[in-house]
Design a protein that fits this description.
With 660 residues, this protein is of the alpha/beta class. It has two domains: 3-452, Up-down Bundle (Amino acid/polyamine transporter I); 474-633, HUPs (Rossmann fold). It is built from 22 helices and eleven strands. Helix 2 (14-40) runs parallel beside helix 11, helix 5 (85-113) packs antiparallel against helix 13 (285-322) and helix 13 crosses helix 14 (341-357). The longest helix is centred in the middle third of the chain and has 38 residues, at 285-322. The chain is elongated and about 100 Å long.
Amino acid sequence: MRAADAALVRGVGSPALFAVLYTTLASALYWSLGAIAAYALGLTPLVFFAAALFFVVTVMTYVEGASLHQERAGATVFARYAFNELWSFVAGWAIMLDFVILIALTTLSAANYLSAFWGGLHGGPFEHWAALLLVVAVAAANVAGLSARRIRRLIGLTVADLALQVVIVGLGLILVFRPGALTGSIVLGSSPTWGGIVFALAITATAASSGLDASSGLAGEVAIGRRGLRRLVAARIATVMVLYVGVALVALSALPVVGGLTPLGTEHMNAPLLGVVGALDPGSALSTGLRYLVGAIGALILVAGANSAMLGLARLGYSLATNRQVPSAVGRLHPRRSTPWVLIVVAAALAGALVVVGDLDFLVGIYAFGGMLTFTIAHVAVCVLRYRETERDRPYVMPWSVRIGGSDLPLPAVIGALLSGAGFLSVIVLHSPARTVGLLWMAFGLALYVIYRVRGGKPLLRRVTIPAGALAREPAAAEYGSILVPLLGTPLDDDIVQTAGRLAGEEREDEGRAGAMIEALWIFEVPLALPLDASLPEGRLAEARRALAHAKEVGEEYEGVEVATATVRARRAGQAIVEEARRRGVEVIVLGAEEPSRIRGGAVLGGVGRLENYLSEVTRYVVEKAPCRVILTAPPGDEAGRSDGGRERPHASGAAPRPR
């Protein structure tokens, strides 16, 4: 297997990836068919066909982008590498709005499909209570995490729904399909209106493609190679073409447009497929049986779609938090499940509030706002990456490119950018609620982003990350109230501060006070030829300020931990560390040991040496003279004393305490 293929091999296979995407695709058909038919009327099948074509170009963009940068999110990752952190946040914040609305839409629609078994769930307070219970169930399932059993069930549900849709389309073409009934009601400009056609196109394109961002969140965990990626793209395209266009043809034949209206967009808007199967052979056992099947499988698919949306939202929120685009408290991980439970609870609360509103037309307009904006950024970003990362290997490359300006410009992405950009503008112009709520949502998000970055002293456009462990709030093996952390000005500094943060713990219950103090220390070694108070070069001062500021950011991501920073001048670094530890009365020193050298390191040369053989003069002095425990955070090494194929690199390998 080639290196690029091997990079894609993780733990989730293409059936699971297809199932995650399919549940969003199929659930969109279950809830969107009525709303789209209300606007597009007799042109609904053509609108679904156009949306399928948009899906074709969008799936190519997402697969190329996700295979190029295999991180936990979709469009926000593409925008990060193509543009900057601000555009990355815009893409992520917009699609997060879609995820929340999708959870509300799917759970509300699922309650209506369950009305096949009890009519009280169609309209009235019971519909909203049932939808709220489903939101809570989805949130609880996502806090618990995605298990192998759930993935198998999802794949089985995908197969069952595909079979059901094939049966509906087949029976519909035999029993009710009449081309004349479709074309006879079309009067362009009035039935449907031009504005209705454009708005329906935007809704349908968003509904068809929104699952792409959720499934892209599994990038980096996909056990699939280049050939498998191409097959997966082909399967997605074939599914959406047959599913969307076939069902739309049957639906408009079964419930045709009369007097400028279709029952799909009126009495059956919240559960359109129930109305379709009820009209195939009214009053027959076939129609009744199909109604129960559609009610049961439709409700399960819609709940699965809500789960996929919550999964995408959770992974996106985690990505935003670790990249310091939203406060890290939002992405806080569950102590046992390692899922971003705070974000899931907040999303469930927002979705529950939207369920109470219960206005499908209101929700679908806002849904199109977020989707069209995100897809525009994603298409443009992948085009830009063709020029910014020309040498980077691409496990999947979309076809049909033209050579412009020294690189290959992908035509599908260009077409997708133009279409989604036009769709975004049409939503703003044609749908007042989407314009108001969507723009307010984006304004609030941008204000949050700017305030958070500025108050934290972080740049608006450059990437700033925090360690994943800072979100986990992992319980520490030992708790210390005061920790001295001498900094080295190397990549190992992050590991040192993270180790100190974990050791600090969340609460000093034994002393009845909260939190702990990390004292980050930068030591200026002044040679004997100069007085201790001699002026220091500006470059050294700037380096110290940067290192101390970054240490404060990393350390204070841990709950209840405060980081104080200081600089010290000394003749010998080791002696200064020991004296500062004694003067400050700290309980432990967390120190970064140097990497094993080929001269001193017996294990590096194939032998076995004493601990001191791995330590620098400074480290040995501190270990021997310190008035407290000393914990070393050092580069890892295997039994041969080497890692990463013989290349040493800084990394936290664990703690080696020395009691005093």
